Amino acid sequence: MCGIVGAVAERNVVEILLEGLRRLEYRGYDSAGVALLNDQQELIRVRRTGKVQELADAIAQNPVRGSVGIAHTRWATHGGVTEANAHPHFSGERVAVVHNGIIENYQSLRATQREAGYTFSSDTDTESIAHQVDSMLNKGHSLLAAVQEAVKTFHGAYGTVVMDKQDPERVVVARSGSPLVIGLGIGENFIASDQLALLPVTRRFIFLEEGDVAEITRTTVSVFDKDGNAVQREVIESNIQHDAGDKAGYRHYMLKEIHEQPVVVRNTLQGRLTDTGLNTDIFGPNADEILAKVKHVQIIACGTSYHSGMVARYWLEQYANVSCNVEIASEFRYRKSFVHPNSLLVTISQSGETADTLAALRLAKEQGYMASLTICNVPGSSLVRESDLAFMTMAGAEIGVASTKAFTTQLTGLLMLTMALGQANGMSDATRDAAVKALHALPAKLEETLSLSNEIEGLAEEFADKHHALFLGRGDQYPIAMEGALKLKEISYIHAEAYASGELKHGPLALIDDEMPVIVVAPNNELLEKLKSNVEEVRARGGIMYVFADRDANFVSDDTMRVINVPHVDDMIAPVIYTLPLQLLSYYVAVIKGTDVDQPRNLAKSVTVE
Ligand code: F1P
């Protein structure tokens, strides 16, 4: 979603801003822009719809420079994808603003501002931020005070950075609902919506908290909390590994990330899984003491992360004897729900910034959960900071909008959570030993599964002209079928649905014909015979099937069924393993269709608005 970069320096900051925007490209956006204060104290702006490269080309043709600047990638919410709606937005020739989030009361702000004589050149909610700050400046406030006063009138979510032409030494930033991080340099300071944007210039960061307003000059950073009190926020040294430019020879980040899974799953296990069980407190300080009391788990997440939560429900109830509910964050947060005694709230998120998941966590905290745990991939993210316990997946930066390695590392963490909760709830030694063995084997099995890549690439040809697809699975493979369908939708734009195959007779069988490929995930588990009956139901209606099956499951390819043999693995890790062929299938179908694999249309990597 939208990205912010800003800088206050002595040197020309144009390249820093553009590089920052490039590093945020993976989040998804549709236009980009930059505003600078140049040496003549003029406010200049360049904006383009499309890619950051188009903005960079425009600047290369008509160079601009400045030592104070703000830049933005916009993912349209209010107003179409036009240059006029791209950020930065100005109020007159004085104030420039970039903004992530949504100002929900922008209509009423606009009405008041119109009455005061302001005019609008965009359809955005952001322009009303610029005018609001300008009106406060006109009352004689400093830039800092003007922003502090202006934010009092905003309802909604914002991460915003403001420049004032008449005060060229500083930018003022405000955070409420959309993350912002200050990067500390030597004789220069920076701001961004994500630390990745600033890694070329610094590794020292201050993560702003909800309600913070901060004033940033070349040499000072002053932070004020929501009540206006000056506060000290901790400076964190980031050791995050990321090189946005590096596809390591792969054609797309998504393919690179699919192939990284054996390594990142190994990294996620490292230091946590021993030869006989788990190390202590791998979910945070004193976690073992808290987990020992847990009798129920409520999982909250969105998208792919929700699917990993769905798998965890099967695991927790089957292996750990702990009851579990899973819910989409946007539903959970707007309904009254029941809090079971001794409930642990678990949020799952790659980014740690998903607006609905974060809001659900905040709501749940008021509802009497025993403790909150997040399974998250981004250190220092809002979910990590606001949860009692955290388990960091070690997927590394995930650039492809469609999540792959984050998902399999989440599953790895969730299986370890199952072991940890099972410990206090009667998990047998045999089950624990099986889990340890299966997890130790997982990276190598993932590697083996990736060798199906060529076969799946060949198969993808058969999907390129299809408009619909149906994914089937049972038990803990049902969420994997859902994840497979989501991947195909996201990057190839083929309509795909997933069903628990026992549900076929209850409706979806009506869809079956030879134009609707049916993808089946079929490990050799106790549900195999049931699944085989469902496969026969599809066959009897002329359906064409692609079955990803355990080699011992005895499926045979024929005119109506193509069987792809998946390595045999223990039941516990089968959901992780069967994810890979479905990721590869979606990837190769998307490549054949020529879509923008890493940045699919209309989607954003980090969904920071609800
Ligand atoms: C949730 C999510 C991702 C998806 C896309 C949009 O994000 O739905 O699963 O791939 O990037 O957001 P998160 O909470 O896991 O960061």
Automatic annotation (TrEMBL):
Return the Gene3D superfamilies for the record: Glucose-6-phosphate isomerase like protein, domain 1, Glutamine Phosphoribosylpyrophosphate, subunit 1, domain 1
Q: Where is the SIS domain?
A: 286-427, 459-600
What EC designation does it have? Answer: 2.6.1.16
Q: Which residues does the Swiss-Prot or TrEMBL record annotate as the active site?
A: 2 (nucleophile), 605 (for fru-6p isomerization activity)
Q: Give the molecular function GO annotations.
A: glutamine-fructose-6-phosphate transaminase (isomerizing) activity
Catalyzed reactions per annotation: D-fructose 6-phosphate + L-glutamine = D-glucosamine 6-phosphate + L-glutamate
Q: Name one Pfam family in it.
A: SIS
Give the subcellular location.
Cytoplasm
Which residue numbers delimit the Glutamine amidotransferase type-2 domain?
2-219
Its keywords, alphabetically, are: Aminotransferase, Cytoplasm, Glutamine amidotransferase, Repeat, Transferase
Main localization (coarse): cytoplasm
Q: Which InterPro entries match?
A: GATase_2_dom (IPR017932), GFAT (IPR005855), GFAT_N (IPR047084), GlmS/AgaS_SIS (IPR035466), GlmS/FrlB_SIS (IPR035490), Ntn_hydrolases_N (IPR029055), SIS_dom (IPR001347), SIS_dom_sf (IPR046348)
User: Which CDD domains does the UniProt record give?
Assistant: GFAT (cd00714), SIS_GlmS_GlmD_1 (cd05008), SIS_GlmS_GlmD_2 (cd05009)
Q: State how it assembles.
A: Homodimer.
Q: What does this protein do?
A: Catalyzes the first step in hexosamine metabolism, converting fructose-6P into glucosamine-6P using glutamine as a nitrogen source.
HAMAP family for this protein: GlmS (MF_00164)
* Protein name per Swiss-Prot or TrEMBL: Glutamine--fructose-6-phosphate aminotransferase [isomerizing]
Name its species: Pseudobowmanella zhangzhouensis
Q: What is the lineage of its organism?
A: Bacteria, Pseudomonadati, Pseudomonadota, Gammaproteobacteria, Alteromonadales
